Amino acid sequence: MTRGGGSGFGLQELARISHGKGSYVFDEHGKRYIDGSGGPAVFSVGHCHPEVNAAISRQLDEIAYGYRYLFTSSALEELTETLLRVSGNCFKEILYSGDGSEAVESALKVALQHFAARGLMNKRHFIARRRSWHGNTLGALSVSGFAARRRAFEGSLLDVTFVSAANAYRMPEGCSSASLVGYLAAELEQAILARGPETVAAFVFEPIVGAAGGVVPAPAGYVAAIQAVCRKYDVLLIADEVMCGSGRSGTWRALEHDNAVPDIMSIAKGLAGGYIPLGATLVTAQVAAPILSEHGAFMTGHTFSGHTAACAAGVAVQRIIERDGLLERVRTAGAVFQDAVRGSLSKFDEVGDVRGRGFFVGVELVRDRATRAPFAPDRGLSFDIGRRAFADGLICYPCSGNVDGAAGDTIILAPPYNASDAELEEITAKLARAVGETLA
Ligand SMILES: Cc1ncc(COP(=O)(O)O)c(C=O)c1O
Fold first, then answer.
1. Distance from the CA of 255 to the center of ligand 1, in angstroms?
2. Does one domain contain both 410 and 316?
3. DSSP assignment letter at 202
4. What range defines the domain where residue 235 resides?
5. Rounded Cα gap, residues 209 and 144, in angstroms
6. Which residue minimizes the CA distance to atom 7 of ligand 1?
7. Given the CA of residue 140, which atom of ligand 1 is nearest to it?
């Protein structure tokens, strides 16, 4: 039996998916699963939304896609206008791609091309953070601080400098809440100086860390502090919002919360809500200007970039989010949801932290609440919980390795933005049951 390239959280046998409706998916035996994590934080407007399906179908009836070197399309132009507007009119150019890794890959290449266009060919180096995930292509993997996923490819990855994760629950040795932001900004500055500012092109980070951290929002003041350091040394700031963006955290851009605009931003996942693969890289006018005047165009892109039916899906998903006020829904219901998850898990000593923003909630499990010591990696606790939840008809997203690359257990919840209150309660109750039964 083929497994579609995945090992399914250690599941022995993958269920065969049959269909979906709203917040639910069904397997071939009719078993119903509530999609508490939107798969991997993808399904922003739920499954099988008739309006999205109709928009894709209409587009396919006309044409599947127009090759980007020859044609533009109404779907692409409408999506571009929409994304520039909903992201706050702070970007000027959009490069489309097929997924999150490609969107990050394009972000890295745009940064390099920007400095090439300015004649600064030494600015080639990237700085990224430990406990981060940016994707599986070689460039995106190179800037990812995720030991288990890098190991097999070490030796062929780009030479990248890694600095500490910005995690208020797991601070670097000797840091306090009061000193954390200053410490992280100084560490980044030191890393730039050690490498030589004239060689550093960009700093890449996730505004809210996803799979590598278990939903870790940056501490207050962090983004302003690192942005000031980047500006001082002419280093571009790349925000990877593939998982946390496109509305997932209750603002369209996750960094709106921090009042910050990056130089380049990658998005995917919730953008077209999983209906057709779609990623995008948004670029400010300042970053784009030298590229366009020196080279005339961005030197990145793929055969299917800006695929017309994918853009039509993106337009339909974004229209639903705007029309139905789903950002407001994610903000307000998200706070209630997070409190409910925290409340339902508070009786378990092994639940060390519940955190997040909007419909992006992380649960961290620890062996000892006081010391925050993790379970041994070979216990496989988060995946055990994920399997038990799945058997009970709940899809959640278990992750491991957030403490030191091997140890650490977290569970991500990321329901569709239009999940009802009753559905959120079902997710909360089923997760508490899975955690309780696994720990017992
Ligand atoms: C923050 C972030 N960046 C990039 C990626 C890569 O996206 P994809 O798997 O669509 O290539 C992911 C995937 O989980 C992600 O969470």
1. 17
2. no
3. E
4. 52-323
5. 11
6. 100
7. 4
d(CA 402, CA 224): 25
133 lines ligand 1 (CB under 6 A): yes
Q: How far is the CA of 228 from the centre of ligand 1 (A)?
A: 26
User: 143 alpha carbon to ligand 1 midpoint, in Å?
Assistant: 12
d(CA 44, CA 414): 9
- Give the residue-averaged pLDDT of 40-67: 98
User: Which residues are within 8 A (CB) of 77 and not within 5 positions of it... i.e. 6 or more apart?
Assistant: none
Counting atoms of ligand 1 from 1, which one is nearest the CA of 268? 10
| Band of residue 7 on the pLDDT scale cut at 50, 70, 90 | low
C-alpha to C-alpha distance for 384 and 400, rounded to whole angstroms: 11
φ, ψ of residue 368 to 5 degrees: the values are: -140, 115
Q: For 263-280, what is the mean pLDDT?
A: 98
Q: What pLDDT is recorded for position 9?
A: 72
Same domain, 155 and 289: yes
Ligand 1: distance of its center to the CA of 101 in Å?
Answer: 6
Q: Which two tokens stand for residue 137?
A: 């292509």
| 298 and 336 housed in the same domain | no
With a 6 Å cutoff on the Cβ, whether 135 touches ligand 1 is yes
Residue 5: per-residue pLDDT: 53
Q: Which is it for the CA torsion 421, 354, 44, 397, positive or negative? A: negative
- Please report the pLDDT score of residue 4 as a whole number: 53
The number of domains in the chain is 2
d(CA 24, CA 42): 14
Asked whether the predicted pLDDT for residue 83 surpasses 60, the reply is yes
Question: CB of 105 within 8 A of CB of 137?
Answer: yes
Half-sphere exposure at residue 180, Cβ-oriented, CA atoms within 13 angstroms: 18
- Residues of 125-154 as b/e, b for ≥16 C-beta within 10 angstroms? bbbbbbbbbbbeeebbbbbbbbeebeeeee
Residue of 205, 204, 210, 208 lying closest to 41 (CA atoms):
210
Q: Is ligand 1 within 6 A of the CB of residue 40? A: yes
Same domain, 111 and 242: yes
**pLDDT (average), residues 130-156:** 96
Q: Which amino acid is at 131?
A: R
